[in-house]
Specification:
Order of helices and strands: HHHHHH
Strand content: under 5%
Low-confidence stretches: none
Distance between the termini: 31 Å
Number of helices: 6
Helix content: over 70%
Shape: elongated
Structural class: mainly alpha
Amino acid sequence: MREAFHEQLDGIFHDLAAICGNVEIAVRLATEALLTGDAEIAEKVISADVEIDRSRERVEDSAFLLLSLQQPVASDLRTVVAALRMVSELERMGDLSVHVAKIARLRVPNLAVPAAVRPIIERMALVAEDMVTRVSTIITERNVEDALALVSADEEMDQLRRASFAELLSTDWSHGVEAAVDVALLGRYYERIADHAVSVANRVIFVVTGENPSSVDA
């Protein structure tokens, strides 16, 4: 019975990693739509979010079934509860990718990102995508060292966010209020994707060690 339980638990983590893979695709395609002004790609991201939502529901159903049938305690209970929180974080990352795609779609045939801040937004997007990729591996391998290392990437994201604000507040900004709002929102969306990635990594640390990192939300 316990062996079957742990196989099911491993299955849930496999599903979490698969969702993370779909989020990675969403981040990459949303950024491509943003930087190229491709409405078709933006629509692809928006429509694909339905599958991420459905995957979240399947993980939740599996987790609740384990809780009701197996009534796990101690580390097993900790793992199931962490999985429920992680899948919520992953779904939110997918939603944030949709927000990026919607800004891209809204500005077609123009680009939402002015040339002056394009390098910053491009770097934020690359950092976010890399963090999502690393989270997928962290979930699969439950590697505490890799999870801890993800924090440094989040620090770079915070620096990029501050740099984007510096551009917006510069006296040289000549792109108008609409573009300023777009850039401010985009910076927030990429920053939040990174924040959720760190939160998922911290929950893996919690599963493996039983220690609750201070950055994990209650």
